[in-house]
Amino acid sequence: MRTGNEPLHARSPLKIRFGLIIWGLVWAVAGTVAFVMTGRPGWAAACAALAMVTLMDLAMVIRHIHQGPHYQPGKDIPPYEPDRGQNNALTRPRPSGPRRTRPP
Question: Model-level pTM greater than 0.85?
Answer without folding.
Answer: no
